[in-house]
Amino acid sequence: MAICRGCGEEIDVDEFDVDLGDQLSCSECGALLTVTGLVPIEVELQAEDLTLDIEGETEENQAENGGG
């Protein structure tokens, strides 16, 4: 099992069927993830999922702060 860094859901990953650098997607939120550890399996969000605007805020932070 691995935990999605985007939504916190558990991702069912066969530890014998993945390698470092493999790309996965979360079935819950659709986040693109990269395998960064094997024992235990760890995943990180891919860079393109962390879209930044010119001021460096994520789109999610902009929505929470009332827009751009």
Structural topology:
Elements: E1 2-3, E2 10-11, E3 23-25, E4 32-38, E5 41-45, H1 59-64
Antiparallel strand pairs: 1-2, 3-4, 4-5
End-to-end separation: 37 Å
Strand order of the largest sheet: 3-4-5
Mind summarizing the main beta sheet?
3 strands, antiparallel
Quickly give the structural class.
Answer: mainly beta
Shape: elongated
Instruction: Give me the count of strands.
Output: 5
Tell me the Rg in angstroms. 14 Å
Poorly predicted runs of 5 or more residues: none
Order of helix and strand elements from N to C terminus = EEEEEH
- How many structural domains? 1
CATH architecture: Single Sheet
Task: Estimate what percentage of residues fall within beta strands.
Answer: 25-35%
> Into which percent range does the helicity of residues fall?
under 10%
- Tell me the number of helical segments per DSSP (H or I, 4 or more residues long): 1
Q: Mean pLDDT, rounded to whole units?
A: 80
CATH topology: the name is: Rubrerythrin, domain 2
| CATH class categorisation | Mainly Beta
